[in-house]
Each structure stands twice: as structure tokens, then as C-alpha cells.
Amino acid sequence: MQSNVSASPRLPCQSLPGPKHPLGAFIPNQPSPNFNQYVRDQGAMTDQLSRRQIREYQLYSRTSGKHVQVNGKRITATAEDGNKFAKLIVETDTFGSRVRIKGAESEKYICMSKRGKLIGKPNGKSKDCIFTEIVLENNYTAFQNARYEGWYMAFTRKGRPRKASRSRQNQREAHFIKRLYRGQLPFPNNAERQKQFEFVGSSSPTRRTRRTRAPRPRT
Description:
Elements: H1 35-43, E1 54-61, E2 67-71, E3 74-79, E4 88-92, E5 98-103, E6 109-112, E7 118-121, E8 131-135, E9 141-145, E10 176-179, H2 190-196, H3 207-212
Subcellular location: Secreted
InterPro entries: Fibroblast_GF_fam (IPR002209), IL1/FGF (IPR008996)
Pfam families: FGF
């Protein structure tokens, strides 16, 4: 006896569709956005939306032992602590670590020419007047120019600007310490560290030193 129920036809296997848009259109699978790349791209551009942060401090040169000063177009590292030309106004350019450095007295920005020379300019909007702050492992700070990558602000022992094309991040000439105006030098300055941990000997001998002291010969 044959059954009257016919076998249902088999449908070919099909892959499941992707996610469906509320309006009915299918959305293709897209890779997740690269947030790190977005941060790098935004950090390389001037931030026109956020409020700029302004700080005031001095820059102590590790090589010259003096402070960076902006005296007109001349940029040197020969100023003493509290010199009016050594007071710097630092403006943030992005939400990253790019800044503009201006002399508070001269109102000139520290910029870098195409020859690698530091000069003072009244307008600091160009890219050669923007520097990237790089905090080093030894707690010093280096300033790399935003236009000329690999060129750093650097000074010689006499406080003269060093040619940026010859400067490197690991050189002492490119190392600085941020210092408050007329303030104490923070670590890692060796001279200040020795003063902080200088031991003063006692004039009166202790009980232990009396025991270990050699007896005086009798006369």
C-alpha cells in the first residue's frame, strides 16, 4: 500500500542574512574603528573646539644650568632664576602634548626655522612654532618640533641654541626641567638632591662612639 503523503522537497542550504537595518536594508559587516589611529590623527591637528590650557613656568636647561629666555628674536638658555625674560607662557595646541611656548615679557613665540635655528616670532600659529612635549625616563622633558620631526629644542653649555638637525632626544642638550617662576629646582637635579640629603655631624660624641674610641695614652 502506498502512502498518499508526498515527501516535501528539500530546499538548498542558504547562509543566514546579516543584521537588518530598521528600514529594511541589510548592513554589511564592517570592521571596528581603530581608536588609537583616531587619537593619533586628532593629536596631529590643532584643536579648535576645546578650551586651551595656559601654564606659566621656566625651562631649566640641563646643559647650561640656566633658564631659557625669549628676548626679542633671540632665544638663549642663559637667564637666572626669576629673570623677566625667562617667564614662559605655555599654551596647549591639542588635547595631546603639543604646546606653543611664548615669552611673557617679549610676547614672542619660540619657533624653529627650516635651517634648525630657534627664533622668536610674534605669531605662533604656524606649525614650526608648535612643539611636542616628551617626558623622558630620567624625568627630564624634551621638546620636538611639530613641523620638523626629529628636530629638538637644544642648547649648548654656553646657552646658545644648538642646530636642531644635530640634536637627539637622548642628548643632554635637549633635556629640560619645568620650574615654577622663582621656585626651587625639583629632582632629578643632582646638586639639589645632595643638599636635601646632606648629613650634618654631631659635635658631641654618642655613647657608641665613646666605646669604640681608642684610649688616649697616659702621660
